[in-house]
Write a structure and sequence with these properties.
Elements lengths: L1 E2 L10 H9 L1 E4 L20 H10 L3 E6 L18 H16 L2 E6 L10 H19 L7 E4 L10 H18 L5 E3 L2 H4 L15 E7 L3 H4 L22 H17 L3 E6 L7 H18 L3 E3 L21 H6 L13 E3 L4 E4 L8 E5 L6 E6 L5 E7 L2 E5 L7 E7 L5
Parallel strand pairs: 2-3, 2-9, 3-4, 4-5, 5-6, 6-7, 7-8
Antiparallel strand pairs: 1-16, 10-11, 11-12, 12-15, 13-14, 13-16
C-alpha cells in the first residue's frame, strides 16, 4: 500500500479552529454514561491522576460521555435533577481540565431513544435538558469547552427529522450559550456512511463528528454486551473491511464539499482481536488520521478497547503499534511509511508520495508477480507485472489513499 499525503483546507472559522485544537483525545468511558454500574455515578471512575497520565501520553482533549437522560423526567415539565451527584462528577472533570489546560467535550450520551415514530414527543424534553445544561455551564471558556448534542443518533430516525430535533435544541442553547461550539453528527450511529446524505445545519458554529468501529465483526468480537454478538476469530484485514474504507472516503468527501470541521469522536479495536490484526487496524486508521490531519478521540483508555498490555497504563506498557499509529509518548514519525511484506520480501516506497514521484516495488523473489492498484472502495485502477523490481508512475492518480495488492497465479 502507498499513500499520498493530503492537507485539507478547512476554513479558519471559529468552529474550525476549535476542532483543530482537539488534536489527540480520549473518551472517559464506562463512567458517567454507565447507568448499569452499582452506585451510579461511581465517584472513582477516573481521577485527576488518570488525566495526568493521559497528558503524559500526549492526550490534549477529553470527551466526557454523560447519561443526562437518566436524570431528566419523561413527563412535562421535564425536570432535570440538578442536585444529582452526576453534576458533581461533571464539575470535578471541568476543574481537572481547567487545571491541566485540556479541552473538554460535554457529551450527551445515550438513552434518548429518538426515532421516526416518536421524535415529536421527545423534542421538548431534549431541548429542555439542553436549556438546563447551557445555563449551568455558559460560564465555561468557549475556547476550551464544547457541547455535543447527542451521541450516535439512532438508525431509526431520518435525517430530516433529526435535523428538526437538533435545530430546536440549538435554538434553545443559543439563548444561554451563544458562543460555544456545538457538536453534531448524522444518524446511523454517527457512521461515516451517513455523511452521504447529510447537509450542514444553518448554525455556523458547529463541529461535526463521526465514529468508526468498522468492520464491526472485527472490532466487537468476543464482547458479551455487543448487539449482535460476534464470535472470536475474525482477523483484520478480512472480507468485511470495505465499510471502513468507504466510511473514511465519504467523510473526507463531505468535508471537502462543505468545508466544515470534522473530527473522529470514537474508534477502537476490542481486546479480543488477535495482536497482529489489532495492529493492522490501528495502523490503517492512524495513517488516515495523519493523511487528513483529523483530530480524534479514542475509545477507551483501559477497558474493552485498551491500548495497553494487560490494561496497565504506562509508557512502558503501551502497545508499540498504538503508540506509533496515534503518536503517543512523543512518537512523531508519520504512520505512512515504507511498507514491507515478508511473504515475497516486498518493499514499497516512497510512502507517502507525491504525484511527481514514481512508486518503486521491490521483491526478494524472481517469481513473476502482479501488482494491482486499488482505491479505498476496492476498485482496480491499474496493474503491472513485477519480476524483482517494478515502477509505478503516480502522475495519473488523484490525491488520496490507495492500496497495492500483490498476487501470483497460486495466490490470486
Amino acid at each position: 500500500m502507498f499513500t499520498v499525503s493530503v492537507t485539507l483546507l478547512i476554513a479558519q472559522s471559529v468552529a474550525g479552529n476549535r476542532c483543530a485544537r482537539f488534536g489527540k483525545g480520549m473518551n472517559l468511558s464506562n463512567w458517567l454514561e454507565a447507568t448499569w454500574q452499582t452506585n451510579y455515578p461511581t465517584p472513582n471512575g477516573y481521577t485527576k491522576s488518570d488525566l495526568l497520565k493521559m497528558k503524559e501520553a500526549g492526550i490534549t482533549s477529553i470527551r466526557l460521555p454523560i447519561c443526562f437522560a437518566a436524570i431528566t423526567d419523561t413527563v412535562a415539565p421535564y425536570t432535570v435533577d440538578v442536585s444529582h451527584a452526576l453534576f458533581e462528577r461533571i464539575d470535578t472533570v471541568i476543574n481537572w481540565c481547567e487545571e491541566l489546560d485540556m479541552m473538554l467535550i460535554i457529551d450527551n450520551h445515550h438513552e434518548w431513544d429518538i426515532y421516526n415514530d416518536n421524535w415529536r414527543s421527545k423534542i421538548d424534553r431534549f431541548a429542555h435538558l439542553w436549556s438546563v445544561v447551557a445555563q449551568r455551564y455558559n460560564y465555561l471558556d468557549v475556547e476550551q469547552f464544547s457541547f455535543e448534542l447527542l451521541n450516535e443518533p439512532g438508525f431509526g430516525i431520518a435525517l430530516d427529522s433529526l435535523n428538526i430535533v437538533f435545530n430546536n435544541a440549538i435554538d434553545t442553547i443559543r439563548k444561554y450559550a451563544p458562543y460555544h461550539s456545538l457538536i453534531v453528527s448524522p444518524n446511523f450511529a454517527s457512521s461515516g456512511q451517513a455523511f452521504a446524505n447529510l447537509l450542514p445545519l444553518s448554525d455556523t458554529n458547529l463541529i461535526y463528528t463521526w465514529h468508526t468501529y468498522d468492520p464491526y465483526q472485527f472490532t466487537h468480537q468476543g464482547f458479551s454486551w455487543a448487539q449482535p454478538s460476534m464470535p472470536v476469530g475474525t482477523p483484520f484485514p478480512s472480507s468485511f473491511d470495505a465499510m471502513l474504507y468507504n466510511a473514511w472516503k465519504q467523510v473526507i468527501s463531505w468535508q471537502n464539499t462543505y468545508n466544515r470541521p470534522v473530527f473522529l469522536g470514537e474508534f477502537g479495536a476490542g481486546t479480543f482481536g488477535d495482536d497482529v490484526s489489532r495492529c493492522n487496524w490501528i495502523e490503517v486508521n492512524g495513517a488516515k488520521i495523519d493523511s487528513f490531519n483529523m483530530p480524534w478521540f479514542y475509545w477507551d483508555w483501559r477497558w474493552d478497547f485498551s491500548m495497553f498490555n494487560s490494561h496497565v497504563v504506562s509508557k512502558d506498557s503501551v502497545i508499540p503499534c498504538f503508540k506509533h499509529a496515534l503518536h503517543l509518548y512523543g512518537d512523531t514519525l508519520t504512520s505512512a511509511k515504507v511498507i514491507e511484506c515478508d511473504a515475497w520480501g516486498i518493499t514499497i516506497y516512497p510512502n507517502p508520495a507525491n504525484r511527481n514521484a514514481v512508486c518503486q516495488i521491490k521483491t526478494g523473489t524472481k517469481e513473476e508477480l502482479k501488482a494491482e492498484v486499488l482505491d479505498v472502495a476496492g476498485r482496480k485502477l491499474g496493474e503491472l507485472t513485477i519480476v524483482s523490481h517494478g515502477y509505478l508512475p503516480l502522475a495519473d492518480y488523484a490525491e488520496g489513499i490507495y492500496f497495492i495488492r500483490i498476487s501470483n497465479e497460486k495466490n490470486p
